[in-house]
Design a protein that fits this description.
The chain is mostly helical. It is about 75% helix and about 0% strand. It has one domain.
Length: about 325
């Protein structure tokens, strides 16, 4: 962390970006996938952002990844962009954007499970076990029609896909700690986005998403949503995030995990007309309670020296957000 304290307005602006810009990207995805095939939309977003960020990294004189690093980048990019983001974009065709954000907020829970079972950097305790169960109960509230709650449950297949998406991100987090990756956050994020975007291009073509798609029929709103995802979500968001990591503790920066889902739910409701009922409120509250308990526990462990700060910051190096 730099010794010189930056101006307060810069810090507040950077936090506002990762809180509200990242939270709003869920709604932007929802707008885009209504008119553009989901994998194709994701491919264009990340390939474009990856190219821009890669050119910037090279212009800054950042070291190119080694052959081994490129292979590791490809593995992590597959999990993050093809599996995680690919499923997210697909799921938002049927799942409200706010609910998608809430389900993906379970990522800290799956990261904790990965650290317990794979990295062995955490151990299961009563408080952690309770927090994990609370988070899963929140998801159950959102999707289970047998609970007799007011409000329509979330499309089960879409919700299940989002859980797979969260697990995939957590797996990438574990791998990124074990595999050699570029030391530069900019180069690491740029290459992950670029490789992931190109992989999405291949997958979108394999599913035939380009067939029957005519860019001329896409509305201005959808084009604006795509531009917003590229510029604000990926490029501006990443810049703010990496800047904050240099000037604030990873735990403070990681508070976006609490704010993003709440803002996404409110934005989806007020801007997109998504239902905000007791089912949504209760499910969101349970998931966020789980996230808060797990994150506080991680902060305590980090203070004790038992875990690294990358986990607290939401490793792997975040190309933008979830999403």
């Amino acid at each position: 962390m730099h010794s010189a304290r930056p101006p307060r307005w810069k810090t507040l602006l950077a936090f506002a970006i990762i809180y509200f810009v990242w939270g709003s990207t869920f709604y932007a995805i929802r707008v885009g996938v209504h008119e553009v095939p989901p994998l194709l939309l994701a491919a264009v977003r990340f390939t474009t952002a990856g190219v821009v960020l890669f050119i910037y990294a090279v212009a800054q004189g950042e070291r190119w990844p080694s052959g081994r690093e490129w292979a590791n980048i490809a593995v992590v990019a597959l999990l993050i962009f093809v599996v995680d983001y690919g499923i997210l974009f697909w799921a938002e065709e049927t799942v409200p954007s706010g609910t998608a954000a809430v389900i993906l907020a379970t990522i800290p829970a799956f990261m904790a499970l990965a650290e317990i079972s794979l990295l062995r950097t955490q151990r299961m305790t009563a408080s952690l076990g309770a927090a994990l169960l609370v988070g899963l109960a929140g998801v159950a509230v959102l999707v289970d029609p047998s609970l007799g709650m007011r409000g329509a449950p979330v499309y089960v297949l879409g919700a299940a896909g989002l859980l797979v998406s969260a697990i995939s991100w957590s797996g990438a987090s574990v791998l990124s700690k074990r595999l050699p990756m570029p030391a530069s956050k900019v180069m690491s994020a740029a290459t992950q986005m670029l490789v992931g975007g190109l992989m999405l291009c291949i997958v979108a073509a394999a599913f035939g998403e380009e067939r029957g798609f005519h860019p001329g029929t896409v509305s201005t709103a959808a084009w604006i949503a795509l531009a917003y995802l590229i510029v604000a979500g990926s490029l501006v968001g990443f810049t703010a995030y990496t800047w904050l990591l240099h000037h604030q503790s990873p735990t403070k920066v990681g508070t976006y995990a609490y704010v993003n889902p709440v803002f996404a739910v409110l934005l989806g409701h007020f801007l997109g007309g998504e239902v905000l009922d007791i089912r949504t409120v209760l499910g969101t509250a349970l998931v966020l309670l789980s996230v808060i308990v797990i994150t506080i526990r991680r902060k305590t462990n980090a203070t004790a020296g038992s875990t690294g700060t990358r986990a607290s910051a939401g490793a792997p190096t975040r190309p933008d957000t979830q999403p």
